[in-house]
Design goal:
The chain is an all-alpha fold and 637 residues long. It is built from 29 helices and 7 strands.
Length: 637
């Protein structure tokens, strides 16, 4: 019985009036059973990894210290290093299960939402500078915060319909508006781990996929259109039926209103036209299994054949097939993605290069992870909790980088450089006590009706009732432009909400998940490898000269080493780390604060002897500069 069904069963038990106290007890016991089940699964993973290591004569890495663990798990779950107080509290805790407790705490924190919205936003190529992007990202954050099961999340994205204001999942189609073939290529790469892009123009030269198969898959989603197809003709039909003409004043006013609403509202919506938007083979199709211009019915590229059932759209049928337990590709792909997110490398590499013969570096382990994903009802937090609690995750990271074509048997996680977002957010945490409380933009509400969610007939009715509503369309355009970086609406929001109480020192300093995505090429985030969101997972950890210069004398080192204090003019806050240093009572305390804040560990004897003279003379900023420029700070180890 799945855990989702067990939860539903608990609700039934409670509503059957077993008694409130009994209901609570049952819920507690079910939660405890699930926690114990996950820990047992963690031990199974460890055994499967140990089997692979033994078979290949590879020695497992040593277990990491609490100092290394707390830094690693904060970076992996929240995307930033722990603060001084958080590190100190964890290291001083006497609890035997404090690692498990911390994993639970972080997975249930807003930090998880922040970091994993960056992760999935990169995979889904969420581009907030597009008119719909901010709401698409907001939808993703809500899904992560509410722990929407992965199969349900995928289902909502693929079947999304309506205006972006009504349904943020519509951003999935709006991201590739007007490009249905490219959209299917991205969909299969992300959710099925299969690259079929080459088959868009010809049979795949290195894989089994044909051009016709590509078109058959595209036929499932081809009926989903962004905006209204040929709205001009449809509007003219409606007006003629009503006996109105664009040559008379009333007709012109109505037509103007409709045009504005369709142009600036309808383009930010998804409408499903089903079989009325049949897909055909291209005019230059040259294979024996079809003729140019032949209609293409939807058909799956592997596994069970799917027929579009009565009462269901082709997109709903696609989701049913894709997320079915009979289609193990779906569960294996997401299990492999999340394993790589935690361990630094996938059991299958690249993560989007699956085929019928793919087994991975440890086939029994991949099989088990995929089965657990299904058994957990695609609960991503539970799945991650299972991996974080393994012994193998809590081993020393392997410092040598194995080429992607060489096997890696997971004697421990792989050492990796922080992502650009992790570097930025970790430095920000040294400057601001709780950056998660600092909002970049307010929640948006549309100032006009959601025209994108209306049919043309409904829009016509609105326009006829109020021909002067054309100005609403223009207001809508202005509002949407204000969502883009540099727009007046954005600047006003920053001034009124984001900057309140912080002062000039902190302008532009927000968590990466709250900033526009992507930032300009010259921004810190882009210089440290932030994706441009044009390709799937296009971020990188490659070293560059601008990175070195930024760490040497960029805005963060200057801010963190400043003696800034609030003044009457700006009424701003003090910078968090210097403020802590000012409150410390001794040189030893200041040295401890520096090391626990930046490197999440105590200084060793050599470091105390080396740096104590600097701190005692008040030159702690020079020690900070050294720590920030160390490899130890930059890498997740």
């Amino acid at each position: 019985m799945s855990f989702k069904k067990q939860h539903i069963g608990l609700q039934i038990v409670r509503t059957a009036r077993v008694g409130f106290e009994v209901g609570l007890l049952v819920l507690f016991l079910a939660t405890s059973v699930r926690s114990e089940y996950l820990l047992e699964s963690s031990r199974t993973i460890d055994q499967l990894v140990a089997n692979g290591l033994r078979e290949n004569e590879v020695q497992v890495n040593e277990v990491i210290s609490d100092e290394v663990f707390v830094r690693r798990v904060y970076l992996d779950i929240t995307g930033m290093i722990p603060g001084y107080a958080e590190t100190k509290a964890f290291l001083e805790s006497p609890e035997r299960d404090k690692r498990t407790r911390l994993i639970d705490q972080l997975l249930n924190s807003e930090g998880y939402v922040h970091h994993f919205s960056n992760y999935w936003g990169d995979i889904l190529r969420i581009h907030t500078k597009q008119g719909h992007g901010e709401l698409y990202r907001a939808y993703l954050k809500v899904a992560l915060r509410e722990n929407l099961p992965y199969d349900d999340l995928v289902g909502e994205l693929i079947t999304a319909e309506g205006g972006i204001w009504q349904n943020g999942a519509a951003g999935f189609y709006l991201r590739d508006a007007g490009m249905p073939l490219d959209h299917m290529s991205n969909l299969t790469q992300v959710f099925l781990g299969t690259r079929i892009g080459c088959a868009q123009c010809h049979d795949h030269p290195f894989d089994e996929w044909t051009q016709k198969q590509f078109y058959e898959m595209t036929a499932f989603t081809f009926g989903a259109k962004t905006g209204f197809p040929d709205p001009g003709s449809r509007v003219n039909e409606v007006m003629q039926a009503e006996g109105l003409s664009k040559d008379d004043p009333e007709g012109r006013a109505i037509l103007s209103s409709i045009s504005e609403m369709v142009k600036y509202g309808g383009k930010r919506a998804v409408h499903d036209y089903g079989n009325s938007a049949d897909l055909h083979l291209p005019h230059d199709y040259q294979y024996d299994d079809g003729q140019p211009g032949d209609p293409v019915p939807p058909r799956t590229m592997f596994g069970d054949d799917v027929s579009v059932e009565d009462g269901k759209t082709s997109r709903e049928s696609l989701v049913d097939w894709m997320t079915s337990n009979r289609n193990d590709r779906f569960s294996r792909v997401v299990a492999n993605r999340l394993w790589k997110k935690v361990m630094g490398r996938g059991l299958v590499e690249p993560v989007d290069d699956f085929n019928e013969k793919t087994a991975g570096i440890n086939p029994p382990l991949l099989d088990f992870l995929a089965e657990e994903m299904i058994r957990l009802d695609y609960d991503m937090k539970a799945f991650l909790r299972m991996i974080y609690n393994t012994s193998i995750y809590q081993r020393e990271a392997t410092p040598e980088e194995a080429p992607i074509w060489e096997p890696y048997y997971f004697q421990g996680p792989v050492v990796r450089r922080m992502s650009g977002e992790q570097v930025w957010d970790s430095m920000l945490k040294l400057a601001i006590k709780d950056p998660l409380e600092r909002l970049y933009v307010p929640q948006y509400e549309p100032p006009v009706p959601d025209y994108g969610g209306m049919s043309l007939d409904e829009i016509y009715a609105v326009a006829k009732a109020d021909p002067g509503i054309a100005s609403g369309g223009r207001d809508f355009k202005k509002f949407l432009s204000g969502l883009n970086e540099g727009g007046k609406g954005r600047r006003d929001a920053l001034q009124k909400e984001g900057e309140a109480g912080y002062g000039d020192n902190f302008k532009g300093l927000y968590l990466s998940s709250q900033l526009p995505m992507p930032m300009p090429p010259s921004h810190f985030l882009r210089e440290f490898g932030q994706s441009d969101r044009e390709m799937i997972e296009a971020g990188n950890q490659d070293p560059t000269v601008p990175q070195v210069l930024n760490r040497l004398n960029g805005s963060f080192p200057v801010l963190l080493s400043s003696d800034f204090q609030p003044n009457k003019k700006s009424k701003g806050r003090s910078v968090y780390l210097p403020d802590q240093m000012a409150q410390a009572k001794s040189t030893d305390d200041r040295l401890e604060i520096l090391f626990l804040s930046v490197l999440t560990r105590h200084p060793d004897r050599h470091e105390v002897d080396l740096f104590k003279p600097y701190v005692s003379k008040g030159n702690w900023d020079e020690v900070l500069w050294v720590l920030l420029n160390s490899h130890e700070f930059l890498f997740v180890r």
